[in-house]
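Ticket #4471: structure output looks truncated?

Reporter: J.K.
Steps to reproduce: submitted the chain below (123 residues) through the standard prediction queue, then opened the result file.
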Amino acid sequence: MKRQDEERIAAQLAKAMAMICVRNTMLEGIHSGRVPVTRTGDFSDVFVTDGDGNQIPWTELSRIDDDEMRDLMRQVVNRLYTFQVRFGEPEFRAFVDRWLGAAHHWDEPTLDAGLAKSTAWPG
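Returned output as attached by the reporter:
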């Protein structure tokens, strides 16, 4: 197989996995909240007042807590695992193809420079 064909297939798989395994998770619920108005364009003019009356700049605010992050990562890992295990099944491939239609307008992926250079084993 030519390198160009491999890259085209990898791009389609990346889009499908991003849509099915990451976007269509509890991340949608986190994303569905209200977005504050910013006059500066960089949210430096937006503050959140917590239950103790502390004003937290939006740019310093954690918008996902540890439990939500843990739940999100579990869901993403489970979906990525399921995607890989079921990818050879014709009915699952048809499901993936339907979702690819929704991602066809997305930008084409590029290599992540940091990950592409990573060769050291952690630990």
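Triage note (M.O.): checked the attachment and the full token line is present. The chain has a mean pLDDT of 91.
Status: closed, working as intended.
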